[in-house]
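2024-03-11 09:14:02 DEBUG pipeline.ingest accepted 1 chain
2024-03-11 09:14:02 DEBUG pipeline.ingest length=353
2024-03-11 09:14:03 DEBUG pipeline.predict start
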Amino acid sequence: MRRGRAAAAAVVVLAVAAGSLALTRLGSGEEGDGGARNTGLPPATAPVERGDLRDSAQADGTLGYDRERKVNAGAAGTMTWTPRTGSTVRRNERLYEVDGRPVRLMYGSGPMYRTLKPGDKGRDVEQLERNLAELGYTGFTPDDEYTELTAAAVKRWQKSHDAKRTGKVGPQDVAFAAGKVRIKSVEAGAGEQAQPGAPVLVTTGSERVVTFRLDVAESQLAKAGTKVTVDLPDGTTAPGKVSAVGRTAEPGDDPQDDSPKVTLTVSFDKPDDVGGFDQSPVTVSLTGETRKDVLTVPVNALLALPGGGFGLQVVRGGTVREVKVELGMFAEGRVEVSGGGLREGTKVGVPKI
């Protein structure tokens, strides 16, 4: 994980910066009373800047396709046709063939697990009926009851594909998926034996997505809807947003890092503009909270004050004055500050670069 800011990192940077600049302050002969003037100048200065401060981070991700799943055979027999890897299959198109009998794709979230006939009821019935209606085979009310009117529509559908007109539909005829699918791999090629429940294809959705992982402590930077920019393998960038955040935290792949992580998914604003890369490494840049029109200084300008809190060395007219400040958000190597009479352009002390 490559990050612009996170709470733990800010604390570490702050401690280092405070310690190093405390040495600078003591070495310069300052009185350290929070308001005394001293002519001992710091080794370098930086201006106080006014602008927007964005809480950002970067993560390594993988570009691929959404909704990977296995398609199991609906009947035993010999595989007589399989689709080409990388091709897209849509509603009512052949997904594969067993013994010359096509299994066609229909859209639905539930599986086709039984042979449907008049008198059956259930979600799978409603899914089938809605597909038939979308394809123009009507004459019934799409609901969860398989009637004789449904069977009549099924017979018309079967006739259009030169199939036996039984009025029944089962796993040997139809497979459901959430939408059109892309063929990732063929698990049982033409000529091989298919067995019910054994995988014959691996499919994905057709939408391009990026998956990446974040520490649970950092997941507030990437809630659903968070805007991101993805650096693609060809050197171009593509805008997108976090579309899903995993609910289960799991250990990372790095044995040296045992912090729990969640998996996130990014969808693209313009998926057609993303090239044909698959399983390719990418970089995801996230932007979290934005503080608008605030004063900021480099993190390493901060001093740990003897009485507690933090301050800055204000340099003006060849003299130095230490002022106490209130801290806001840390991001992009800078920190939001207020108080101490600071204004845009004020010079503050920093370690020598």
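2024-03-11 09:14:41 DEBUG pipeline.report The longest helix spans residues 7-27.
2024-03-11 09:14:41 DEBUG pipeline.predict end
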